[in-house]
Write a structure and sequence with these properties.
The complex is a heterodimer of chains A (322) and B (198).
Chain A lengths: L2 H34 L16 H11 L10 H20 L17 H22 L3 H32 L4 H7 L4 H4 L1 H14 L11 H4 L9 H26 L13 H22 L5 H30 L1
Helix pairs in contact in A: 1-3, 1-10, 1-11, 2-10, 3-4, 3-10, 4-5, 5-6, 5-8, 5-12, 8-10, 8-12, 10-11
Chain B lengths: L14 H15 L21 E4 L9 H5 L5 E10 L9 E12 L8 H5 L5 E4 L13 E2 L1 H8 L16 H19 L13
Antiparallel strand pairs in B: 1-4, 2-3, 3-5
The chains are: A mainly alpha (322), B alpha+beta (198).
């Protein structure tokens, strides 16, 4: 096939996934959360069980006035939502959905490094927003985001390193090719730590201290309106898709599963990702928000030691079997 | 952080977190409690405080409701009518005729005192509640509207099996028993003037 056409097609598919999957997760969250609370959730928009609720929300956001506060650092303030959202699009490019080179947006040799580095950039958007808003609540939210990034980036990196050690490569398709079913119990602690740290990095409840609405209104996003605000929300849900996809490919074997060789690998990837997304919503509904000090304590006294232990276990097993 | 009960056996770490997850998952599988109101009408019990219906055939314009109303939202107008004597040589009788009966539901606080106080059972609670208006003045409803709401008043719920007998039925039963015993005691004199008087 023509190279340019091939690249364009891949980019288009990734872009469509990037635009639709977060909405699907968002709608699922509406419904799952409602039913977990004994409610029905949206029922009207679109006619059938409110399936078009998020489309309606989007239309509403687009109609609203785009306000930049007088004291704000105008350019940084306007740029922040894009900085928050775009990294997830880039990460999505590197997540393989099935076996072979054809089922990934772009094969990146140092995939794990690329993915984690770019995901860290997403948090910069919140920091920029918090700093540029000229609002003390925004600033507090931004600083909490920074503290959270520092605390949770480390266990995330360490557990990802553990998988890379196990596979002997930092390329994500390479990790998937090396995957065996017994990696699941071997890396289970790492998987949980990675997932929890990822949740904290996305500022999802119960780790939503940076946007704690009862304390600091909406943290770094307090001053945002209209489409820019919607972009921040979209970034959160795109983040869920990316985090669940990454956990799937790094720890749960991605496309591995029964009949994966018959071209059903992509189904397994999507199924595992959807299951994890459900868990993200489930955790949000179940647990109350962690206090700021509890948040830091969880990372430094539990997740970091656990991830170090996981690395040690990975190293020992690796040496023993080789 | 005190435990309400001493733990029996070793406490599994994270058991509380797992229980929390179980609660939300169980709730998700149960039927929701949401009432889809405009699509499905609520099933309201009798005597729900929706609106006040007027059974105007029972009203004697005694004005008790209007006088007891704490915020004076009942308006009553009436005039006297003279009825001709029922029999030749008899006296003419006068009677109150209701001209206007209106309740201003923008003032009404749904205390139900008018319904309690009505000695002739002319006012009733109806569960009908969909009478919002865009103009506050239109919340004053006149007697024809109040009479229409009377049709929406459901029958009162049945008494509990162990409840006391209603007063009216008790009185009627006593009278009937007295009558029966009187006719049995004196079967030869059916025209006893004492019999049916209570």
């Amino acid at each position: 096939m023509n190279d340019a056409l091939d690249v364009a097609l891949r980019l288009l598919i990734v872009f469509v996934v990037f635009l639709t999957f977060p909405l699907i997760v968002g709608q699922t969250e509406h419904k799952v959360m409602a039913h977990m609370q004994g409610r029905l959730g949206p029922m009207y928009a679109g006619g059938f069980h409110g399936w078009a609720q998020l489309v309606a929300d989007g239309v509403k956001f687009a109609q609203k006035e785009d306000i930049v506060p007088a004291g704000a650092d105008r350019r940084i303030f306007q740029l922040a939502p894009a900085v928050a959202l775009l990294p997830y699009l880039l990460v999505l490019l590197a997540i393989p959905i099935g076996p072979g080179d054809g089922a990934v947006g772009e094969v990146v040799d140092a995939g794990v490094f690329f993915v984690l580095a770019v995901m860290g950039v997403g948090v910069l958007g919140s920091l920029m927003a918090g700093w540029a808003s000229a609002n003390k609540f925004s600033l507090l939210g931004g600083l909490r985001t920074a503290a959270q990034l520092l605390a949770y980036e480390l266990p995330m990196l360490l557990t990802a390193a553990s998988v890379a050690m196990a596979a002997g490569t930092v390329s994500i398709p390479g990790i998937l090719d090396a995957f065996e079913w017994w990696w699941l119990p071997w890396q289970i602690v790492g998987a949980i730590v990675f997932f929890v740290a990822g949740l904290a990095e996305l500022q999802r409840p119960p780790f939503d201290m940076p946007v704690a609405d009862s304390e600091i209104i909406f943290g770094a996003y307090t001053e945002y309106t209209g489409l820019r605000f919607a972009l921040f929300l979209l970034a959160e849900y795109a983040g869920i898709v990316v985090l669940c996809g990454l956990t799937t490919v790094l720890f749960l074997g991605g496309w591995h599963g029964p009949w994966a060789a018959d071209g059903l690998g992509w189904v397994w990837t999507l199924l595992k990702t959807a299951l994890l997304a459900f868990v993200v919503i489930w955790l949000r509904v179940t647990y109350p928000r962690l206090r700021e000090d509890q948040l830091q304590k969880l990372s430094w006294t539990l997740l970091v030691p656990l991830s170090l232990a996981q690395i040690a276990v990975t190293g020992i097993v690796k040496v023993v079997i080789s | 952080m005190a435990e309400p009960l001493p733990p029996t056996g070793p406490r599994i770490p994270g058991i509380g977190l797992a229980k929390g997850l179980a609660v939300t998952l169980r709730t998700m599988t149960k039927k929701t409690v949401t009432a889809q109101y405009p699509d499905a009408q609520p099933d309201l019990p009798p005597r729900s405080r929706g609106v006040i219906g007027l059974f105007e055939e029972n009203c004697t314009v005694c004005m008790l409701c209007a006088r007891e109303c704490p915020d004076w939202c009942i308006y009553i107008d009436s005039h006297k009518e003279t009825l001709p004597a029922a029999a030749p040589g008899g006296r003419e009788r006068s009677r109150n005729v209701l001209d206007r009966f209106a309740i201003d539901f923008s003032l009404c606080m749904y205390c139900g005192i008018c319904i309690e106080v009505c000695p002739f059972d002319a006012l009733f609670w109806s569960p009908e509640f969909e009478y919002a208006e865009t103009d506050i003045l239109e919340l004053t409803h006149e007697r024809d509207k109040l009479r229409e709401w009377m049709w929406t008043v459901p029958a009162p719920p049945a008494l509990d099996p162990a409840a006391e007998e209603p007063k009216e039925i008790a009185a009627a039963r006593k009278t009937a028993e007295k009558l029966a015993s009187a006719t049995q005691a004196q079967p030869t004199d059916p025209a006893d003037p004492q019999g049916g008087d209570s």
